[in-house]
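If your schedule permits, I should be very grateful for your opinion on a structural question. Kindly check, if you would, that the fold set down in the tokens agrees with what the sequence suggests. Thank you for your consideration; the sequence and its tokens are set out here:
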Amino acid sequence: MMMSFLMSKGQIDLNCAHDTCLVLSYTKLSNRYKTINLDTSFHYASLSLKHARNYGDTGLLVNAINALAEVQFKRSEYAESIELSHELMEIYQKTEKWTEYHEMQMNMANIYSGIGENYKALEYLSKSIDFWKKEGDDIRLAQSYLTRSEIWRFINEIDSATVDIDHAISFFKNIDSLHGYYAIACNTKGNIYASVDQIDSAIKYVELSKVILDSLGNNYLKVTSLNNLARLNQKKGETEKAMLYYSETLKLARELKSNEILHLALGTLADFYFDQKKYQKAYDMLLEYDSVKNLVFNEKKEKQFLDIEAKYQAQQKQNEIEILEKKNEARELKIQQKNYTIWILSAIIMLLGLLLFLNVQRIRAKSEKNAKKLESEILRAQISPEFIKNSLSVIRRRFSQGKNEIANDYLADFATLMRRILDNSRKKEIPLSEELSNVALYLEFEKERFSQQLTFDIEVDEFNIDTSALIPPLIIQPMIERL
């Protein structure tokens, strides 16, 4: 039986057997959604594996298991990923594909390291290293040494980590095409030296990593090296050098236009200024840090919206595939049983159309409901920009007036209120007493802004009002703000 599947980039004709087409199509769809939506990718990978098991082709089964194991690892479903990886290793062992078998051992080491079972990871890596030595595969051998050195360092086995990283460095540095690995290895070597307080040696290797990354133009990895150099020089007491590296890190983070990287760079620089008792600069960094944090938050929410849309589109695509399957089954049934009348076939088609319509309506309603819920959560999490601006202006004015103690107290209260608002935005309901406490703190800020000219008193009739009653958060403060 031949099938044709409609996919997101046009019509793809798969001239192959029924189950083969399904496995290949579902695997492609899983890979396509892997960087967009893991839930959708998992859905298609599961369907691919289901049909691959039914078909019984080893090649298709291996591809399907690989796809699902990778998605489960990214979804932090480590137990399920390990189980599938073991199944894959058994297949490679039976078919005597030893290179693929030991590559899976390297993958197993990464999984176990990710869940903190470092000695289990070392066991798998050691077996792989022995095999790569025997096979003379220097690239995979060096990669295994690099991975194992990082695990040794994590469990504080510094001597073993040093031996492994030296093996990796000696290989990677002689091959131009692998200088990216060489830079990573040098940075790892620097971290090993830093863990035993050999700061000068650590700086030497991290600087070498930076030089390599400069030549490769890899600015994403360079950010890590710059930040390490700043941290190491600060630890050494080289404040000016540390300042230069922190500033270069921040500059590069801005150029990369990645809010997450910029968020981390601003945080480390603010900590540095605070340690140097440069509180005004630390405060300026924290202001931008909070601003970028809100951007990161909004980006994540936007991605959630895109995920919902992707799920809806994926479900529509799945419906299309299911309709095609059912239509093909109807055609075969018509060929096999010619005595079926036209009205029965018409009824089946109409029923399928009705089911599709109802299913699409249900999915659309669910998507709209989820979108409205998510939008509500975002709106609830937002804080009045005018209030923040006014509060920060008061703090800055107190600092400029030399009233540092008052400004610091006000800044601490401001941070407390912001934390409460952010915490409560994740809750559906909070006690009335907690909401009134937040309102009181908000009014204290307004009182300070109006130079103590504002007076207020919160009275609650405790006989008629239960202050432990639950209400939606942030419901009273906006009404007071409009007064």
Observations:
- Residues 149 and 165 are 6 Å apart (CA to CA).
- DSSP finds 19 helices and four strands in the chain.
- Residues 279-336 form the longest helix (58 residues).
